[in-house]
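Re: the 432-residue chain
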Amino acid sequence: MNSAHSTNLLEHDHRFVWHPYSSTHSDVPVFAVKSATGAYITLEDGRQLIDGMSSWWCAIHGYNVPELNNAVHQQLATMAHIMFGGLTHAPAVRLCKKLVEITPEQLETVFLADSGSVSVEIAMKMAVQYWQARRQPGRQKFVSLRNGYHGDTMGAMSVCDPVTGMHTLFSDILAKNFFVPSPECCFGSACKAEHLMELQAVLEQHHEVIAALILEPVVQGAGGMKFYSADYLKQARALCEQYDILLIADEIATGFGRSGKLFACQHANISPDIMCVGKSLTGGYMTLAATLCTKKISDTISSNPPFVFMHGPTFMGNPLACAVALESIRLLEKSDWQAKVQAVEKLLCKGLDPCKQFDDVMDVRVLGAIGVVELKAAVNMPNIQQAFVDAGVWIRPFGKLIYLMPPYIIGEHELNTLTGAIFDILNNGKHR
């Protein structure tokens, strides 16, 4: 595309398009993309950027993957979409079977969804309807962790951090739930009794009105990129059993290997009652998510009035999305993804550790294919976004966090370029 055409595209974007978490009067630059292959994004002006974001953490195999392209083409030639009410099809059935096989034990029923936020809504509705079926209709509250993030829809917003989260504007119209402190025990350390005191107190005092505890296992994503002890997760699971409360694991960001385990719950060897997966489920090709639950939950709901689960998205079980999700899981399973994630982790540690020397830096932490530089103050987004693009990388900070979640297929040179760009920009003060 010539420069005039590219300029026209951006002008029309500015006039007609409202981007996520942005103002229509924003001075944060927007860049037009022409194509993407492997770990590279090519802009309309010809510049190539090394991708450090995996398109918000979902493109784990990189872009323009031949096997995933082929899965879409083959399914498209047969059936792009069909309603899922009263009908079924092979891609959806095979995908649900595969998800049951690879997720923690006891998760045996799969409800397909359109997006991560919707999968959380489904999980919350499942929990409430389960207790309705158990003749305990008063159980309609949820417990979640501060610094947690579970999505942008109404139910999901109600279990995001109400103070430091992104949804304080809507606090008066959201359901009121219980919040306990974000775990203070870091990943790799033991969880002591005092770390669970407030969670235990809330469950003990309010278990008769609580439907479930919802949390992001081990990694709190968009709420702060915090990594906490797997032992906390294990003990939280035990407390849920003690007080007869369901546990919902939000694995939307952590699922499919990002934390070094296929699912982050496996760091603690626990199985939740309900699990949400999304993002990298399709390798970043199209939107699809799933909510898995135990047979006890699905059977209880199905055996009591109204004898059906009250949810049904129009595009539930989209054949194109299910077909590419199956192929994405197959690609992951046949690759040595554990070794790839370990290699990424090692390079992230090496490349980001020098950032600790800067006065502006509060913390540097790495887990699996996640690297985080936490600053003491929020970045200047217009400055830092342009600086990263000028450095030939695509990194999208938010707040005080500069982080990397690259595709698993990224090479050593590309990853070193990403971490080097972060160091250089901090060193030159272009984040301010």
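The chain has a mean pLDDT of 96.
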